[in-house]
Amino acid sequence: MSLDTAKHLKLSDVELKQTYLFYARCSVVDRVEIMGRHARLFHQLRSNNVDELTLAELSFIAQTKAIRSLMNDRDSVRRKNYGEMTLEEIEKLSEMKVRQFFDNNTELESVRSKLIQKWPLVVSLRTAPIKKGNKPLSFNKLALLLKKELHLEQLAPSTIHKLWHELESKNTQEDTQ
Q1: More reliable by pLDDT, 138 or 17
Q2: Pairwise CA distance, residues 19 & 134, whole Å
Q3: Model pLDDT, residue 112
Q4: Which of 62, 110, 141, 174 shows a CA-CA span of 20 to 30 A to 33?
Q5: 88 or 116, which is more confident?
Q6: Does position 154 have pLDDT exceeding 80, yes or no?
């Protein structure tokens, strides 16, 4: 990062890493909002700093500032209460909290859907005998294997356990009928 860029951003390396880690975790809706903010900031910066910085540096500064502004908005949403707010502020706050809730739930649903897509693999790993006394693979070990195989960082053994009992109980009921 050049000195001019650092002068405009006023962020440490740790804060810069946190900013782009936040961006990596953003949903598509948030990324579109960041792109809109980026465009506005870029044109402001370009009109103010015509000769000082290159277009790439201006774009990087605008992108970073847009992400930071969304991060600050999210932090302010977490800290606010409905106490002394107008109806418009309450509506905006509620909308942002709902969006955060759905962002968190879609991550869990994506883990579940990826697990269902690979369910034959899960069944074969779970039911395949291990050398030690023909016991099935535990859900903890199965979760560790699937985290590596499917690249799912948020996969928990309890998710596999719940899905196992949900799907395999249906299979055994269908077999008895």
Answers
A1: 17
A2: 49
A3: 78
A4: 110
A5: 116
A6: no
DSSP the chain: --HHHHHHH---HHHHHHHHHHHHH--HHHHHHHHHHHHHHHHHHHHH-TTTS-HHHHHHHHHHHHHHHHHHHHHHHHH--STT--HHHHHHHHHHHHHHHHHHHHHHHHHHHHHHHTHHHHHHHHHSPPTTTTPPPPHHHHHHHHHHHH--TT--HHHHHHHHHHHHHHHHHHHH-
**What is the CA angle 13-16-20, rounded to 5?**
140
Q: Give the whole-angstrom CA distance, residue 135 versus residue 127.
A: 8
Where exactly are the structural domains of the chain?
A: 3-79, 107-176
pLDDT 10s digits, 54-74:
888 888 889 999 999 988 887
CA distance linking residue 153 with residue 151, whole number of Å: 6
CA 74 to chain centre: 14
Section 19-43 average pLDDT: 88
Q: CA 76 to CA 78: how far, in whole Å?
A: 5
